[in-house]
Every structure is written in C-alpha cells, then in structure tokens.
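Notes from the 1:1 (GR / supervisor)

We went over the backlog. Supervisor wanted to see one worked example end to end before approving the batch request, so GR pasted a single chain during the call. The sequence is below; no edits were made to it. Supervisor asked that the structure be written out right there so they could see what the output format looks like.
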Amino acid sequence: MEILTRPADYSKLIGVTEDVIAFNIQYLAMAELVIARSIGSIGTTKKLWFILDISSRGIEAVEGKSREGLAVNFNIININAPVSDSQIAAGENIAQEQSLNTFQDIEHYIEHNLSGPVAKAIQSEVRELQEEIQNDQMKPSRTQKIRNMCKQYGPAALAVSDAIMRLVTAYLQSGQTAHQP
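Structure output shown during the call:
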C-alpha cells in the first residue's frame, strides 16, 4: 500500500491546486491532527509540508471522540483510489454526511452535493437502477453507465458510484429484490 505524503500526490487525487493542499496540510500539522514534517526551500521562507501519518488526536477528532471539543466536522467522500475506501475531507464549511447506504441516501447526496446536467443525468440513471432492482430486472450496463457518468462529473460524484457498487453487490449476494422504505 502506497502512502501519499506530498501535496502534489493529493492534488492529483482530489483535483485541487497544490497550494490549497499545502495550506491544508500545514493547518492539519499545526493543529496536531496529522504527523507531518516541513522542509525549507532555498532562497525563500516558504516551507514544504509532507504528511507522515494521522495522529491519535486526528483519529479522535475524526471519530468525534476528542476531549478538547475540536470543531472538526468532516464531509467524508469515498474515493475509488489505489487504496480502497479512502476518505478525504474537503471544503470550507464542512458538514458531516452519513454513509450512503440506500437509494434514498444517494438521492439526498446528489440533490445536495451535485449540480448541472450531468448530475441530473446521474440522478435519473440511479432512479432507473432502483426501479430495475425493485422489479428484479437489473441491467449491468446501467451500473457501468452510472460509474462512467460519475467519473465524468469528478470527485464529488465518486461517492455515488461507490455507494451504487455496494448496493448492487449486496443485491446480487442476497439473490433477492432490494426493497426501499
């Protein structure tokens, strides 16, 4: 398993600039939420930060067990990255989202986190898939289409793709129709 340490690594993974990543790594390190090291650049006061590990304080903050009342509230996005089930927090005013475990959760996530014509198309395909599963007539091509659309949309839609794959896998393993409340 490869551990990402440099801002450039995270920049490619999430699709934001290295400067934004570097700023956030420095913040997390100074807040003692991650274990990181910095090295100075020659001829400037700028420092380059590298993540080494998450700290015990960082784990407690993410799990909501911090004794210090940290205002850490993460929106978790699952990414189909080289490390399966990777989680990344992004944004300025971040609200916690629960896992996407049902079609209703996915619908809610799409409505609140995605926008534009591709998002509407994803939402339509998800509804079609739900109907196919409820009628026990799922077409594998539908899941592939949703996955491709989510890749086209970008990182925020990858949570939808991941949740769909988990729901479809559970449906196939159960051999039953997946009913929704």
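Supervisor's comment: The helical segments are 7-14, 18-30, 56-63, 103-113, 117-134, 140-153, 155-174.
Batch request approved.
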